[in-house]
Amino acid sequence: MLLPKINNAFFTKLVLLSLSFMLVLASCKKDSSTPAPTPADKTALQAKVTEAQTLYDGSVEGTKPGQYEAGAKASFQTVLAAAKAVLADNNATQTAVTNALAQLTAAMDTFKTHLIKEIASANLIGFWKMNGNPADSSGKGNNGVLTAGHAYFGAGMPTPAADRFGRANMAYHFDKGGNIEVPYNTSLNPQQFSISIWLRKTVDGRTLNTDTYTMTSLNRWNGYKFQLQSANKLFLTVKGVNGTDTAYYDRDDETAVLDVNTWYHAVVTFKPGEMDFYVNGDLVKSWTNTPNPAITLATPINFVIGQDLPTSKYTTVDGDFQVAWGGFWTGELDDVMFYNVALDATQVKSIYNNQKTL
């Protein structure tokens, strides 16, 4: 049987159509095998957003040290919100995530610059706020330890007390030698210094050494000690040494008499050639007959708040450590600050203004 004759033109068209169809199929197969875009890595951004949120939530705007300048939180929150939006965007590119991380990091750094710091913060060596513990808030690590006084004084212990604002457990009551002992550190033994303290003296039951109400001390008169004397005047003793020239500087505020059972802010500053006393932010006496710098102790002795020596250093024999010659505080103490420079009058006034209100 004879086969029908195939038209060459028709056959050519059929072949071309088949080839086109195969090309289409190949093209579709190639497109379908293209991998989906890799999701952006948001791990670092997530961690930074969490860190930033914690910083934002824990910050307060105001005018006191530890607070942030007005308006700082709003600017910070704008960038934080933008970073959160990128974090929540499933289609965010890696570039967008990287940029959001950089912007949020920069915003955090800028926000921290608006933190209001303590006066002369670089020179603040110890800040014992006494808010239920003897920890140092200066960042210098000079933490204290609550310590019983010597048995001769009655072996008292510091106990939590109301502060000058009436807030419970935000100050300490000291009596019978109870003290806060701070391990010796050369930073607590500078050649010039300032001590700022809130105090309330009481006399209830006090019978021993009533002429020496010691607030802070580093080796008594052989270093320095800050106290109230019998006339309720601020009193500082410093042993000054310059080569072979040694002198004991015993000076009081001369005119300011502090009432018992009353809160006061007291500051004393010392540098070679000048010793100044301040009460409630005001300069009450300046002495200029103290030429030598404060001595550097040859043998380390711990710094003490509330007693004039560490309890373990007292002896019952005559000498520099005789307990019968000792002094201790009776009453409340709060917000004790120690600087390794002599603050000026403007700085002292600023501390008082910052701390006299909540």
Automatic annotation (TrEMBL):
Gene Ontology molecular functions: carbohydrate binding; hydrolase activity, hydrolyzing O-glycosyl compounds
Signal peptide: 1-26
Domain LamG-like jellyroll fold, chain residue ranges per copy: 191-346
Domain of life of the organism encoding this protein: Bacteria
Keyword annotations of the record: Disulfide bond, Lectin, Signal
A Pfam entry, by short name: Laminin_G_3
GO biological process: carbohydrate metabolic process
InterPro entries attached to this UniProt entry: ConA-like_dom_sf, LamG-like
Name of this protein: Concanavalin A-like lectin/glucanases superfamily protein
